[in-house]
Design goal:
The chain is of the alpha+beta class. It contains three helices and six strands; from the N terminus they run ββααββαββ. It has a single domain (2-130), classed as Heat Shock Protein 90, CATH 3.30.565.10.
Length: 135
C-alpha cells in the first residue's frame, strides 16, 4: 500500500484484497474521526468504501490496482475509488430483481445520493459524497 496525506484525509494506492480493504477501512474510521467526523458518519463511510471496493473487485478481479480517496470537507465526507476498467460501469437492478449483483448500488443511492462515475485515461472513478457533521 502507498499512502499519502491530503487535507482532511488520505489517498491510498492499494491492491484489491481482503487484507488491504480491512486496513483501509480501519484507517478510514481513524482518520475521519481525527478530522471531526462522528462515529456514525465514519461507519457509513466504511460501508460505502466496502461497497465501492467490492464493485471494483467484481469488475476487475482480485489484486487489481485501486486508488482510494477518503476526506472531509465543508459539505461532508467524500469516498472515491478509482479502478482500471473504464468500460465496466455499475448497473442498477430493480428492487424486486433476483439478480445476484447490483443491489449494493441501491445502498449507495440511499447513503450518497448523487454519486458519480467519471472515466479517466486509466480507468474510472466512482465518487460518493456523504452528508456528515464534521467539526
Amino acid at each position: 500500500m502507498y499512502l499519502r496525506h491530503r487535507p482532511g484525509g488520505f489517498t491510498a494506492h492499494i491492491t484489491a484484497s481482503e487484507h488491504s480493504l480491512a486496513t483501509v477501512r480501519h484507517l478510514t474510521a481513524d482518520v475521519l474521526q481525527f478530522h471531526g467526523a462522528d462515529l456514525e458518519s465514519a461507519g457509513t463511510a466504511q460501508l460505502v468504501l466496502s461497497e465501492l471496493v467490492g464493485n471494483a473487485v467484481r469488475a476487475c478481479g482480485s489484486h487489481a490496482p485501486l486508488v482510494v480517496e477518503i476526506y472531509t470537507g465543508r459539505d461532508g465526507i467524500t469516498v472515491a475509488v478509482h479502478d482500471p476498467a473504464p468500460e465496466l460501469l455499475p448497473h442498477r437492478t430493480a428492487a424486486g430483481d433476483l439478480a445476484e449483483s447490483g443491489r449494493g448500488l441501491v445502498l449507495l443511492d440511499l447513503l450518497a445520493p448523487g454519486w458519480t462515475v467519471d472515466r479517466s485515461p486509466v480507468g474510472k472513478q466512482i465518487r460518493c459524497r456523504l452528508v456528515a457533521d464534521t467539526k
